[in-house]
Each structure stands twice: as C-alpha cells, then as structure tokens.
Amino acid sequence: MKKWFLLLIFLFGFGKIYANSIFIPMDERQANHLKAYGIAYWILKADQEVKWLVNYQGGSFLMNFTAELETECRVRGVTYEVISSADEVALLKYIADPNLNMDAVNLVKSAKIAVYSPIKISKASFEDTDAVLLVLKYAEIPFDVVYDEEIMRGDLVKYDWLHLHHEDFTGQYGKNLWRISPEDIKAQENIAKKFGFNKNSDLKLEVAKKIKAFCAGGGYLFAMCSGAETIDVALAAEGIDIVPSEFDGDGIDKDAQEKLDFSKTLAFGDFLLELGNESGDRRMRSFSNINSASGKGGFGGWGEDENETYFNLFSFSAKWDIIPALLTQNHEFQIREFMGQTTAFNKKTVKPNVLVMGSSKTSDRYIYGEVGRGQFAFYGGHDPEGRKGFHRTPTDLNIHPHSPGYRLILNNVLFPSARKKKRKT
C-alpha cells in the first residue's frame, strides 16, 4: 500500500516537476493585457529573466514557473498557462524557424523608471490625466517622479528610462494659463531663481539639454503630447527669444524662425514656429507645425464626428529589426487616433533618420530614433483612450484593460530590459 501511495504522489507531482514555465498569452485570450506587463516587470524586479516572444500570440511572455508567480497572476487577473519543459523547447524551436517572423528576446533587468512631472513641486492637478502615470500605477510598475531640480542636480544618472508628457520646455507654461495655476508657476519660477536663471525659459532650455544628454549617454527617453514637441522646439531655439511678453515680460525675436538650429534637435527639423499670442489669447495653442493639428487650437479633429479614424502600426522583422518589432507588439494593429495639445506629428517635420512605427494618412503618430548611445520614442496625443477634447478627468483603466494604445506605452517600459540587437532598417 505504501508503494502505491508513493507512486500516486509521484504521478500527481509529475506535471509540476516538468511544468517549469508559465506562458502568458498576449492575444485576444488575455484577460488583462496591461497588468500582464506588470507581471513581467515584477519578475524582472526579482532578478529573474523573462522571454518576450516577439510576434507570437500578440507578443507573449514566458517565465520560469514558481508558485509565487502563479499566485501573482491569479491575484492580478492575468491569463496564464503552466507548460512543460518539453512544450517550452518545442515552442522556442518553432519561434526560431527562420521562415517565421518571430523571435524570443531575453529581458534581463528591470529598468529604473523616472517620470518628469510638476507634481513633484506643486499640486498641478492637470497632471492627473498623464497616461503614463495612469498606466504605470494600473500595471503596478514602480517609478520615481522627478522635476527640474532633480535634473539640474544630475539625478538622471540614477535612471534608465525617462518619460515626458504634456510639458513645455519653451518656458511658455503650456501656452494655456487657464490650465496651470499661479501656484504652479511660482513653484517653477522659484527653481529657476535657485539655479541662477532670470527666466523660466532659460531653466527649461537647460533641463531640455540635460535630458538630451541623458539620452545620448545611453538612457531611454519616452515622450508623449507636447513633451515630444517642445523639447525639440526648445533645443532648436537655444539663445533665441521665442516667448511672448505675457510669459516673460519682453517680446519675441522677430528673426526667431530664421535663427533656428535644427542640428540640435532629436526627432524634428524644418519646422515652423507658431509665435504670437501677444494678444492675451489664452486658448490652448500649438508651439509649431510639428503638431499636425497646428492652427486648429492644438487639436486635430479626430473623434469630432461619428466616424473615428485610426492609425496603423507597421510590421517589422523580429529577427532583423528587433527594436521596432518590440516597440510595436500588440494584439491589434489599427489603433484609434486620439487628441492632445500635440496630437500627432507633421510628416514633413520628422527627420529622415527617424523611424516611423505608426502612421495615418495625414500624420505620423509613433516614431523611434537614436542619439549617441541612447534611444527615444515619441508618441503623439494625450490619452490613448481619450475621446473629444482635452480630458480633465483621469481615464479609468479598469474599463480599458485591453487598450492597444496603452500597450504601446508599456512596450516602451519593458524595452530597456531587452538584450538589444542593432536595428538594420
């Protein structure tokens, strides 16, 4: 009897002995796509590796089996499968087939994440709708908040990944004074004075230059909305006054446009400034024609009628163009367009050495580039699940756990953990 009992124990435990991997599908079967990224980051944070299965079932994940991991998937509501070592070997062999556009990429270390936001120094209630802050919290991915003072002190060396959202590095407070409070402005001006700058625009330029240096030194920069536009506007306008008197007490340089130096920018060139605003018009406005919605009050017109429009993600070779392939992993490849202060990017202003990863007929939405030893990705718009206008209330991601637009953000969060292969495109 004892022998039979031991045999039953062995047979019962046989599956667990050989079921040494957890497979997390990222296609339509996944119950919560966004939280699945949080599981991957959680494993990396514990100094364990994750295999990202590029172009396999929506960009699925493969991890070593542990009881703790299985429990964590259940607690977070993430769909998973326990598979045997034989099934894992067969799966990886299938993905390695040179005739298939798939690859398995090892993620080896969790990126140290920083979000640049004025909530570090003031209430800044408009930041409540920052899509990256929302999705990092929802996916339970830890991050630090930094702002001008931390960057001026040189703290960016502590981080691998930096996010910018609806920022204004030109020093014009977003060109919409109804959005930012007098207290917010005062807090920023105090930092400028602390570091010896007479104008907030001078401080913001120095911050923009340090962010570019962070990227060139090997950091990863992910920017959305006006953050993606204004960092390049500020860099091109170094030493040129482009700030109207209502923001800094003196007028703009009448020759500002002709003096721009596009060699200093990251992603954009040959753009036209949207100057003026001297009349005191406080509507949200564009900074330049980098914004494809320039001249339309900063917004594009997407979603303003019953016919919503979409942009397409491009397909890349998983075995040869691994970087853009990783950054475009998704279960859907047509994504509903959404607005922002910088809604999308004018195709004519995107530099030729910048790779377009997502585009519509009228604009580029999602781009990637390299500077020095680092990389950046810019994503147009404010909130991937936003509808009309500029949302003043946060999106509830419990309603959008499968959002393909938010998945693009989380692709960028995991990307620095990959063992990178040089892009050939």
Write the layout of secondary structure elements.
Blueprint: H1 2-18, E1 21-24, H2 33-45, E2 50-54, E3 60-64, H3 67-76, E4 81-83, H4 85-95, E5 103-107, E6 113-116, H5 131-139, E7 144-146, H6 148-152, E8 161-164, H7 182-194, H8 200-216, E9 220-224, H9 225-236, H10 245-248, H11 256-259, E10 310-313, H12 322-327, E11 334-336, E12 355-359, E13 364-371, E14 374-379, H13 404-414
Parallel strand pairs: 6-7, 6-8, 8-9, 9-14
Antiparallel strand pairs: 1-3, 1-4, 2-3, 2-5, 10-11, 10-12, 12-13, 13-14
Organism: Arcicella aurantiaca
Protein name: Asparagine synthetase B
Features of the shown structure:
Rossmann fold, alpha/beta, 2 domains, five-stranded antiparallel beta sheet, 425 residues, disordered N terminus, Alpha-Beta Plaits, globular, single chain, disordered C terminus
Task: Write structural notes for this entry.
The chain is of the alpha/beta class and 425 residues long. It folds into 2 domains: 2-107, UreE, C-terminal domain (Alpha-Beta Plaits); 113-302 and 337-394, Rossmann fold, CATH 3.40.50. It has helices spanning 2-18, 33-45, 67-76, 85-95, 131-139, 148-152, 182-194, 200-216, 225-236, 245-248, 256-259, 322-327, 404-414, and strands spanning 21-24, 50-54, 60-64, 81-83, 103-107, 113-116, 144-146, 161-164, 220-224, 310-313, 334-336, 355-359, 364-371, 374-379. The strands form 2 sheets. A 9-stranded mixed β-sheet has the order 7-6-8-9-14-13-12-10-11, sandwiched between helices. A 5-stranded antiparallel β-sheet has the order 4-1-3-2-5. Helix 2 packs parallel to helix 13 (404-414), helix 7 (182-194) crosses helix 8 (200-216) and helix 8 (200-216) packs across helix 9. The longest helix has 17 residues, at 2-18. The N and C termini lie far apart (66 Å). Mean pLDDT is 88; it is low at 1-17, 278-282, 297-306 and 421-425. It comes from Arcicella aurantiaca.
